[in-house]
Amino acid sequence: MDHGGGAVLTKDSDEYKILSEMVDRVSKPVTCGADTSSVVPNLGIMDPVSTLRKASLQLTGSLPTPEQEAAVAQGGEQALSDALDVMMTKDTFPTLLKEWYNDVMLTGKYNQFDGQAIGLLSTTDYPTANWYNPNNLPDNMLTTDQKNFRKWAGMGVANEPLELIAYVARNNKPFTQILSADYTVVNYHSAMTYGVDPKSVGLTDPYNPNYFVPAKVQIVRNGGKTALPHAGVITTPVWLNRWPTTTTNVNRARARMTYKFFLATDLLAVAERPIDPSSVTSTNPTRDDPYCTSCHRILDPVASTFQKFDSSGRFNPDLAWPLQMPQPGFGSRIIDNVSQYPQALQWLGNQVSSESRFGMSVLTNVYQGLIGQTPLPYPSTDDPQFADKVKAWREQNRIFQSILADFNTEGLYNVKAVVKGLIMSPIYRTDAAHDLPAGQMEPFGTGRLVTPESMARQLPATTGIRWVRYDRADALPTDYNILYGGIDSDSVVKRLTVPNAIIGNVGQRMANEVACGAVAWDLLKPQAQRILFPYVEVSQVPEDDNGYTVPVSVDNIKKNIQHLHKRFWGERVDISDAEIERTYQLFLGTYRELHNAKDTSLPYECQGRWDQTTGATLPAGKMGPTDDKYFTVRSWMAVITYMMLDWKYLYQ
């Protein structure tokens, strides 16, 4: 057959030789050996006892006991692993999971005001939504119980997706149930709001708003009741309202967030490329234009699975859906039976949670909460540090694959395996490195600014008192939440990881006020019961009135400083260490300044007049230091303030 044309290359041309060599190379490929080298030998890894302390503060909001430290010191890595298992049975662990997942899903937006989330519900679907105020009375006519019930009902609805996550983790259920559970969780008050009899689900105490149990909800529809097709968190009213839809968006935002939160896939990042507007010739470019379809063919079938939930998050099995949108589906799988469309999210939840990327999403979400940053992405080839970052990424990937294998073991899908795997790894435990380029160190070691919520737990664990406002609520997660780098899940949705001037000022106020209250409170206790000053008394001064050293007192003061270094910073240093001497010089310098001024006054707020646990005034005979006649109370306050303002205290 005559194809026309003519010779393009001659056999003796350079182009022919290049093409010939390429064909030869393709037919006889060179296999590169796998890179089995590791950066870990060049990393300094925290010992088990140091890791225990760091993890205990983060997971339980408390310091490990001497007995726990001794057990881990003797038992090593296995004892540390066992200790982590125990930590994750404590109440603080589900609380942490709620904080971590709220940082991702931002459903806490609806828990800022009393009863806020109840306004999301339709009183047609839930006629008992305002059960606490059946006569629709104004606020000034409501009883205290009615106001509390409204607050707790709103809290129950607002916290529903996070409490479901906490319930699954607390009870060691497969974590896939955060998407596949055919139930939700309610407290006494949200059960009443949804029209669920609290007693029928085991709720009997109307004054315990923090107890949540599984329940199935029905809505009123056409004079009867219709079961809500629960699919874990994605069918909760606050999740659907936090990520709403419009007539043009048609649930694509909900679909995108499903990919982002539960499949570790940011479709917007995948779509970051220029689009030629002149190529758009169709009236439906999301369906027809190749620039659009590469993402929309992935996104739109998932959007269609949300079709029976409207912009307010209401479930309506009769809701119409644009014919231009594809059938509900996920990947290559679709729902081709129209009668199953009302249950499409249940189908989707099972599809997504069975994907390997679901495990990666859990690991990513936990990583961000625990480590305070995102995992190292695969580097760009034009990055000057590409070779080093690839090596680091491979090491990170090896660690991740090991953790995911534990997560997937025998279909258990226990989120605790992910948390423990990260804590036991060099990612969490690296505290030094040698002979490594910067790019290879990037994923290893943590130094995150402690969040307001975690700091509120760390303060009583280390100082023995909380930093509270007028109503005894913790000041950091409330009054100072945003100022200290926190989020409100609404207008502020990303935590600060680097301190600014405002955070520095809040930290100074916190340290000054906590030291003010903690020193006198600890010193008024019997010596054996003290957590800050077990080795000194108020009367122990470093120098006498003539400026001569008091050796016994100095020894006790340094011994107590050594104790504080361990308590506040986790440092196990010898009493002759230069760090101990530096802290002692601060104590001594403050003492001398006060002694020379002959100022024995102690600010009223810093006197031992109150029970710092309850805020109650102590009886006259039980009060502690009410003045500073030995000039040591304020000297110790200076030391505590100094230790609380060091980066080793403010960072995890």
Structure description:
This protein is mainly alpha-helical. Helix content is 46%, strand content 4%. Strands 1-8 form a two-stranded antiparallel sheet. Strands 2-3 form a two-stranded antiparallel sheet. A two-stranded antiparallel sheet has the order 4-5. It has 25 helices and 8 strands. Helix 4 crosses helix 15.
Helix-strand category: mainly alpha
From the alpha carbons, calculate the radius of gyration and give it in angstroms: 31 Å
Number of helices: 25
**Distance linking N and C termini:** 75 Å
**Unreliable residue stretches:** none
Percentage of residues in helical conformation: 40-55%
Q: What fraction strand?
A: under 5%
Main β-sheet: number of strands, strand sense, barrel status?
2 strands, antiparallel
Average pLDDT score: 94
The count of β-strands is 8
Strand order of the largest sheet: 1-8
Shape: flat
Topology readout:
Layout: H1 14-27, E1 43-45, H2 48-60, H3 66-87, H4 92-105, H5 144-158, H6 160-170, H7 177-180, E2 184-186, H8 188-194, E3 213-215, E4 218-221, E5 224-227, H9 237-242, H10 252-262, H11 267-270, H12 285-288, H13 290-305, E6 329-330, E7 333-334, H14 344-353, H15 356-371, H16 386-407, H17 415-424, H18 426-429, E8 430-433, H19 438-441, H20 452-463, H21 501-523, H22 551-569, H23 578-597, H24 633-644, H25 647-650
Antiparallel strand pairs: 1-8, 2-3, 4-5, 6-7
Features:
652 residues; mainly alpha; two-stranded antiparallel sheet; two-stranded antiparallel ribbon; 8 strands; flat
Summarize the structure.
The chain contains 25 helices and eight strands. It is mainly alpha-helical and 652 residues long.
